[in-house]
């Protein structure tokens, strides 16, 4: 299980263990067989987990600021700088690069069970001229965070 593997790798320590001190508000992860007992979001936001992930991927400034294809073309900027200005710009670029590499929090997957928003009786079906019921559902859309509405006719009541 991924959660147990991350917890285990944090508990065994690393060469930089003195740098990974436990914060006051840190709650150790529960070690249980159920995934529902573990708060994945809280564990992922933990500073030790974030440091471990940053150490795994590294930080290559040349790769972060390398040339890449973009939709809009911008002019290159050249400037004459002193050594102090260069070190200031490099530290500023390092902070900006760390912000680019910050990991997004883990979100639990959405439920595939539709939520009934409304269930109304007394709608007239124009083809059969009979009364029907209309159910308005909130359905999760696969692959995106957005949802869409589906209206569904109760055909059994229409044909009765």
From TrEMBL:
Gene Ontology, cellular component aspect: mitochondrial small ribosomal subunit
Protein name per Swiss-Prot or TrEMBL: Uncharacterized protein
Span list, region Disordered: 13-37
InterPro entries in UniProt: Ribosomal_mS22
Molecular function via GO: structural constituent of ribosome
């Amino acid at each position: 299980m991924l959660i147990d593997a991350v917890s285990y790798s944090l508990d065994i320590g690393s060469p930089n263990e003195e740098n990974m001190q436990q914060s006051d508000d840190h709650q150790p992860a529960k070690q249980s067989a159920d995934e529902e007992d573990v708060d994945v979001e809280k564990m992922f936001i933990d500073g030790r987990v974030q440091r471990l992930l940053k150490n795994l991927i590294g930080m290559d400034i040349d790769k972060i600021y390398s040339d890449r294809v973009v939709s809009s073309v911008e002019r290159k900027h050249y400037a004459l700088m002193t050594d102090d200005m260069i070190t200031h710009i490099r530290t500023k670029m390092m902070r900006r690069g760390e912000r680019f590499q910050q990991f997004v929090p883990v979100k639990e997957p959405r439920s595939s069970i539709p939520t009934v928003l409304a269930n109304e009786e007394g709608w007239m079906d124009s083809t059969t001229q009979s009364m029907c019921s209309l159910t308005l559902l909130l359905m999760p859309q696969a692959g995106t965070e957005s949802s869409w509405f589906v209206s569904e006719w109760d055909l059994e009541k229409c044909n009765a």
